[in-house]
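Retry 2 of 3 after timeout on previous attempt. Resubmitting C-alpha cells to design endpoint.
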C-alpha cells in the first residue's frame, strides 16, 4: 500500500497527489501532541514551583507567627515572674516591718515588766519595814502599858502607905517633929505623885501618838498591800503578754525562715528564667536566620518570576492557548508578587518587633 502511494528514487521520494497534505496533517498532529506534552510538563513545572514558593512562604510565615506567639508567651511569663518576685519582696519587707514593730513592743513590755518587778520589790521591802516597825511599836506599847500599870500600882501602894501613916500620925498625934517629918514626907510623896502623874500624862500622849502612827502605818500597809495586789495582777497580765509575744516572735521567725526559703527558690527560679532568656535569645537569632532565608527565597522567587516572564514573552507568538495560559500565569505571578511584598512587609515588621524584643531583653538583663 505504501509502495503504491509513494516511489523512492535516488535522491527524492515521489508521492501521489494529495499525499503531501496527509503527511502535513500527520506532522501537525504529532507536533500538536508533542506541544501538548511540553505544555503539560511546563504547566506542571510552573504549578509545582508556585506550590513550592507558596509552601515555603507559608512555612516561613508560620514560623514567624509561631515565634511571635512564643515570644509573647515568654514576655507574659517573664512579666508575671517579675510581678511575682516584686510582690514577694514587698511582702517580705512588710512582714519584716511588722516583726520589728512587734519586737519593739516586746522590748517595751519587757522593760515595763522589769520596772513593775522593781517597784514590787521596793513595795515589799517597804511593807516589811512597816511590819517590823509596827511590831516594834506594839512591843513598845505593851512595855509602856506594863510600866504604866507597875507605876500606877506602886503609886497606889505608896498612897495607901502614906494614908496609913497619916492616919497613924493623926491617931498617935506625936510630936511636931513627927508631924513635920510626915508633912515633909507627904510633900515629897506629893511631888513624886505629881511627877509620876506628869510622866503618866506624857506616856499617854506618847501612846496616843504611837496609836496614830500605828493607824497611819496600818493604812499605809493596806495601801501597800492593795498596790502589791495590783502589781501582781499587772505582772501576771504582763507575763501572759510576754508569752503571747514570744509565741508571735516564734511565728514571725518561722515566717522569716519560710520567706528566706521562698527567696532562695525565687533566686533559683530567676536563674532558670535567665537560662530561658538565653534560649529565647538563641531562638530569636534562629528566627532572624529564617527571616534571612525567607528573604533569599523571595529573591529566588523573583528571579524565577523574571525567567518565567522572559519565557512567556518568547512563547507569546506561538499559540492563543499559550497566551491565555501566560495571562493566567501573569495573574498568578502578580498575586505571588503581592504575596511576596506582603511577606517582605511582614518580615520588616517582624524584624522591628525582634529589635524591640532584643532591646527589652537587653534592658531586662541590664
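Retry 2 succeeded. Sequence:
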Amino acid at each position: 500500500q505504501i509502495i503504491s502511494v509513494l516511489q523512492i528514487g535516488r535522491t527524492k521520494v515521489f508521492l501521489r497527489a494529495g499525499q503531501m497534505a496527509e503527511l502535513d496533517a500527520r506532522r501537525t498532529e504529532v507536533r500538536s501532541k508533542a506541544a501538548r506534552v511540553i505544555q503539560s510538563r511546563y504547566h506542571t513545572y510552573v504549578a509545582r514551583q508556585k506550590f513550592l514558593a507558596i509552601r515555603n512562604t507559608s512555612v516561613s510565615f508560620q514560623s514567624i507567627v509561631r515565634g511571635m506567639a512564643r515570644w509573647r508567651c515568654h514576655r507574659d511569663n517573664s512579666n508575671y515572674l517579675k510581678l511575682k518576685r516584686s510582690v514577694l519582696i514587698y511582702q517580705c519587707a512588710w512582714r519584716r516591718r511588722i516583726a520589728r514593730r512587734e519586737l519593739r513592743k516586746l522590748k517595751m513590755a519587757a522593760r515595763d515588766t522589769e520596772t513593775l518587778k522593781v517597784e514590787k520589790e521596793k513595795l515589799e521591802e517597804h511593807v516589811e519595814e512597816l511590819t517590823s516597825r509596827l511590831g516594834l511599836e506594839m512591843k513598845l506599847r505593851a512595855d509602856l502599858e506594863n510600866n504604866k500599870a507597875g507605876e500606877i500600882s506602886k503609886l497606889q501602894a505608896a498612897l495607901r502607905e502614906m494614908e496609913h501613916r497619916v492616919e497613924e500620925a493623926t491617931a498617935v498625934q506625936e510630936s511636931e517633929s513627927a508631924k513635920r517629918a510626915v508633912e515633909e514626907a507627904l510633900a515629897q510623896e506629893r511631888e513624886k505623885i505629881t511627877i509620876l502623874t506628869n510622866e503618866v500624862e506624857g506616856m499617854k500622849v506618847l501612846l496616843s501618838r504611837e496609836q496614830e502612827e500605828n493607824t497611819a502605818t496600818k493604812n499605809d500597809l493596806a495601801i501597800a498591800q492593795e498596790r502589791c495586789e495590783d502589781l501582781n495582777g499587772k505582772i501576771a497580765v504582763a507575763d501572759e503578754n510576754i508569752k503571747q509575744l514570744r509565741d508571735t516572735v516564734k511565728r514571725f521567725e518561722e515566717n522569716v525562715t519560710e520567706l528566706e526559703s521562698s527567696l532562695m527558690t525565687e533566686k533559683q527560679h530567676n536563674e532558670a528564667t535567665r537560662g530561658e532568656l538565653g534560649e529565647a535569645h538563641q531562638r530569636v537569632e534562629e528566627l532572624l536566620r529564617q527571616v534571612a532565608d525567607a528573604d533569599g527565597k523571595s529573591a529566588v522567587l523573583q528571579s524565577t518570576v523574571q525567567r518565567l516572564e522572559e519565557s512567556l514573552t518568547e512563547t507569546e507568538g506561538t499559540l492563543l492557548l499559550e497566551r491565555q495560559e501566560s495571562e493566567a500565569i501573569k495573574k498568578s505571578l502578580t498575586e505571588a508578587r503581592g504575596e511576596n511584598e506582603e511577606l517582605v512587609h511582614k518580615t520588616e515588621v517582624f524584624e522591628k518587633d525582634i529589635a524591640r524584643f532584643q532591646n527589652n531583653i537587653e534592658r531586662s538583663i541590664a
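Attempt log closed. The chain has one domain: 2-365.
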